[in-house]
Amino acid sequence: MSISRQILFWIASLAAMLVFLLVFSPILLPFVGGMALAYLLDPVADSFERSGFSRLAATLTIMVLSLIVFVIVMFLILPVLVNQLVLLIDNVPSYLERLDLLIESVLKSRWAESLGVDSEAVRHSLGSFLSEGTTLVTGFVSSVWSGGLAFVNILALLVVAPVVAFYLLYDWDRMIKLVDTWLPRDHADVIRQLAGEIDRVISGFVRGQALVSLTLGVFYATSLVILGINFGFLIGLVAGLVSFIPYLGSTLGFIAAVGIALLQFWPDWIMPVAAAVVFVVGQLFEGYVLQPYFIGSNVGLHPVWLMFALFAFGLLFGFVGLLVAIPAAAAVGVLVRYALARYLASPIYRGTSGQSSDGS
After folding, report:
1. Where in the sequence is the domain holding 294, given as residue range(s)?
2. Is residue 297 domain-resident?
């Protein structure tokens, strides 16, 4: 097969996959979720096998343990989160009134008057900024919701995903061997090398980031609850779990925690500053301890590229896109690095002078 035909084949394969995701994204959530769960748990199953378990026994043991953890979370944590979320929604009007009073008191303060601040212009600008930000976030959330978080899909995720995960986890190694037999023999070694690199990047980031997010969620939630900030458990846990998107979780958590603390304790500045310190310490802890220990420095997923992939896939395919975005970003990154290495070693880049100097 010529190079041009190979390129056309892979482009056609990519186009077919994108069309498949676009057409079936409303029903793919439980299947993609089950596949992601099986991928995350496969190393655990392998370790059980090395301990003497059969693959079936290892899979059953893992699924039972996962069910127990899920039930514990549902009974202990979910009621608290739902209660705080309901209270937060109920208190939105009162918080908006406090925010208006806070802005008015700041704009009418002596230092604001000494600077010649136009209070009406500032209030109008803040209102426009909040309105545009709310519209942007609402649009993105609506896209994600309509693309994969409908009520029926949530039920399907809870019922179908564990079944899919069980069968995939049980047959994982056999599926990998079967797919390996389909590889074109002339390029099998290169494809295996690239697939191994993609797997290293995905496993290093996803499994590591899951531990980082969980640790940060526990740290933020515990710290904010100790400080006595309203809805601290909800804000901290969500901020930690969303931290798989670089800087987004900590930024949203910082804004929410400091904002709630300001409205709750104003005019006292101690608690808002303490809430800000919690997230600054969390970011330092993540950057200097958690990231190097759980993920390492060789994953190769740039934060900007990762954020673009998450937002782009989330906008196009909904929640399914968020699950697919990280593997897709990892695969594209590995393929681009491979293509760049081939280009730098090719006559197109090195030219005739490079060839002659190497040959001498």
Report:
1. 190-345
2. yes
Total count of domains within the chain: 1
CA angle 323, 87, 84 (to 5 degrees): 50
Tokens matching residue 260:
């709630």
Residues 255, 224 contacting (CB under 8 angstroms) = no
Mean pLDDT, rounded, for 310-331: 82
Say what the pLDDT of residue 58 is.
Answer: 94
* Top-confidence residue, 140 or 192: 192
98 is a domain residue: no
pLDDT of 28-63, one tens digit each?
Answer: 878 888 888 898 889 899 999 999 999 999 999 999
Half-sphere exposure of 217 (CA within 13 A, CB side): 16
pTM above 0.90, yes or no: no
* Cβ atoms of 62 and 44 closer than 8 Å: yes
Is residue 360 domain-resident? no
- Domain assignment of residue 1, yes or no: no
Q: Is 71 helix (H, G, I), strand (E, B) or coil?
A: helix
Query: Has residue 148 got a pLDDT over 60?
Result: no
Q: Which long-range contacts (CB under 8 A, 24 or more apart) does 189-198 make?
A: 194/334, 194/335, 194/338, 197/334, 197/338, 198/327, 198/330, 198/331, 198/334
Higher pLDDT, 100 or 275: 275
Rounded Cα distance, 301 and 306, in Å: 6
